[in-house]
Amino acid sequence: MKKNFSTLATALLISFSVSVSAADVIKIDTPALDNTVQKVYSVYCPFCYKYEKAVTPNLIKNLPAGATFQAICLENKGELGVESCEVLAAAATISHKTYKQAKLAMYAAVHDQKLKNVKGSTAVKGELAAIGLKAAGMSQADFKAALTTPEAQEKLAYDRTIALTIAKIKGIPAIVVGGNKMIDTSTITSLANLDETIKNNL
């Protein structure tokens, strides 16, 4: 995946004056979803973090009219992957801002600060969740209340049924269009190329 992101990052530095062609798309055995673009990620994935900052905002901004974006949390990566996904599912029930604050704080703890208590053999249960909740301004009571809502539980259940299936194909970050068409990120050459591929497959 490192090579994939490097290819895209390099492409961002060149002019978009050349004609834009679509990236390759892989048909996958998952349910179809009309007008939906999904991204599978984990806060433990360094390339997901890079996408979060450099790619995803542009992707969302340029979605065709009527298209919906879904972020799918992969809990099977990282020692505290389950709690990170639980925090994000709970935070999302409050507001997108709350969700974003929690997610960026957990990304930073793992990749920028490289805190020993959130990864590897020295990870301590509850530490990554605490970081996300603090950044989002959520108390433990807020978290527990939000986590038990039908919205959060449905989100966690859905992500568990689909995230690992998609991630096993070519790793993460994974971008899926229409539920069953995964973009081969190694063939993305620019942000415009990604936009065109999404448009062609919705």
From TrEMBL:
Keywords: Signal. The keyword Metal-binding does not apply. Residues 1-22 form the signal peptide. The keyword Cytoplasm does not apply. InterPro entries: Thiol_disulfide_DsbA (IPR050824), Thioredoxin-like_fold (IPR012336), Thioredoxin-like_sf (IPR036249). Residues 35-191 form the Thioredoxin-like fold domain. This is Thioredoxin domain-containing protein. Gene3D superfamilies: Glutaredoxin.
